TrEMBL record:
<dbReference type="InterPro" id="IPR023631">
    <property type="entry name" value="Amidase_dom"/>
</dbReference>
<feature type="domain" description="Amidase">
    <location>
        <begin position="13"/>
        <end position="156"/>
    </location>
</feature>
<dbReference type="Pfam" id="PF01425">
    <property type="entry name" value="Amidase"/>
</dbReference>
<dbReference type="InterPro" id="IPR036928">
    <property type="entry name" value="AS_sf"/>
</dbReference>
<protein>
    <recommendedName>
        <fullName>Amidase domain-containing protein</fullName>
    </recommendedName>
</protein>
Length: 172
């Protein structure tokens, strides 16, 4: 936590402790957890998060939504309190991959208010945008490696083990 030691993940001075909408006893994880909670609870259609070190990806993962952490400079950081100019970025947190991609498309590009970061990256935005890469069958026929030993350690027969296995069975 960059604000102060001892402050729990998901805490806000304005509204108090954020709560994971699916597992209230679980951590909502990291500084953009309010955005992830709002998307997961269907309070808003799209949200934006900022990330230095996991603040888009962690709350997206923990709250079961989709976060995209863009390459630094792909989106403008104008108005953001910068912690690390080489790592800070802004990205979408949404309920679906499609929503996140379309929000990212609206965010990317050159911004004179953050010219140093956005000038170079804006040259690499694909013509036709990112939406052209959305494909509902994108994983069909692909092989997915699943790290188990020494990576995920769930007690045999636990709910975590069942959910983990069920997610990968769904992708098959």
């Amino acid at each position: 936590n960059f604000r102060a030691p001892g402050i729990p993940a998901g805490w806000s001075p304005r509204a108090g402790q954020g709560i994971n909408p699916y597992v209230p006893s679980a951590t909502p994880c990291a500084s953009s957890s309010g955005s992830a909670i709002a998307a997961a609870a269907n309070m808003v259609a799209v949200t934006i998060g900022t990330e230095t070190d996991g603040s888009i990806m962690c709350p997206s993962s923990f709250n079961s939504v989709v976060g995209i952490k863009p390459t630094v400079g792909l989106t403008s950081r104008a108005g953001v309190i910068i912690i690390s100019p080489r790592m800070d970025t802004i990205g979408p947190i949404c309920r679906t991959v499609s929503d996140a991609v379309h929000v990212l498309e609206a965010m990317v590009g050159y911004d004179p208010r953050d010219a140093e970061a956005t000038r170079m990256a804006s040259r690499y935005i694909p013509k036709g945008g990112y939406g052209q890469f959305l494909n509902i069958d994108g994983l069909r026929g692909k092989r997915v490696g699943i790290l188990r030993k020494d990576f995920f350690r769930f007690a045999p027969g636990s709910i975590q083990e069942k959910v983990f296995r069920d997610h990968f069975n769904t992708m098959r």
